[in-house]
Amino acid sequence: MKKISICVPAYSEEDNIQALYTELTKVWQKDLSGYTYEIVFVNDGSKDNTLSKMQELGRRDERVKVIDLSKNYGKEIAMLAGLDHCSGDAAVIMDSDLQHPPELISKMVELWELGYQDVYGRRVVRKKEPWLKIKLSQIYYKLLSFISQTKIENGIGDFRLLDRECINALIAIRDKERYTKGLYNLIGYKKVSIDFIANERFSGETKWTFKDLFKLALDGITSSSVKPLKLAIYAGFLMLIPAFFYFIYTFVRALSGKTADVPGYSSLMIVILILGGIQLISIGILGEYIGKIFVETKKQPPYFINKKNSKL
Hints:
Layout: E1 3-10, H1 17-31, E2 36-43, H2 50-60, E3 64-68, H3 75-84, E4 90-93, H4 105-113, E5 118-126, H5 131-148, E6 156-163, H6 164-172, H7 180-187, E7 191-198, H8 210-224, H9 227-255, H10 265-297
Domain Glycosyltransferase 2-like: 5-167
GO molecular function: transferase activity
InterPro entries: Glyco_trans_2-like, Glycosyltransferase_2, Nucleotide-diphossugar_trans
């Protein structure tokens, strides 16, 4: 009998853990009785009673694993920790807040049995999501697809079923500065999408802050392409060309004795500020890449587990 692992990273989601477990149990009893399963909960340094809720389920059900990370590493590393400890023939990654509908798992399994190795959910509607957030998300994914030269569609996240070959490929990549959405495309394999309507959160508020989203967006851009470095070079040349012609123009006017008409400090300051801004942005982009190189060359483990609190 084939085994399906459910990988659930969670940060301060104490009110959602039991509800998700109940829904998953119902799905298996109703639609997936021909498969065994395990639920791999990953506690990503939660500040509430999320861990104790997971441990309680682990004591009641031998199919529940609990991974307690030593601190808050972020969702990307939490997913890696979950996949590291999955033992199934396939794994489903999903959020703990029930926005990813558990009833969709049976359809994912059907497509997996047809030979697809990466069955990913495509969110077509997200209830009560702000208009501005939707538009910013669309712009970001278009920008990311352009910069990375890899098509990453809006509405596609981490809710997906992965075959064991995909799991092994992802866990073989031990990057600490991870952008898993880019890695799904990197590893390849036979993919298919399945549309779904995202539910409202079962309980609580999202833990994603603007700072977290900005960092994830920046990681997505700098982790999947070196094109920003090339764009910085192009920007430098674009500024150099008009500056060169302006220099010739000023020089010729000075030779002809029309120095009084040469613009003074205002125009000079404008040019300096523009060039300074481009230089600082370019240095910042370069710093992002150098920082990633520094982190990866230290060869530290991506995460540490508090084994006393875990059930492996």
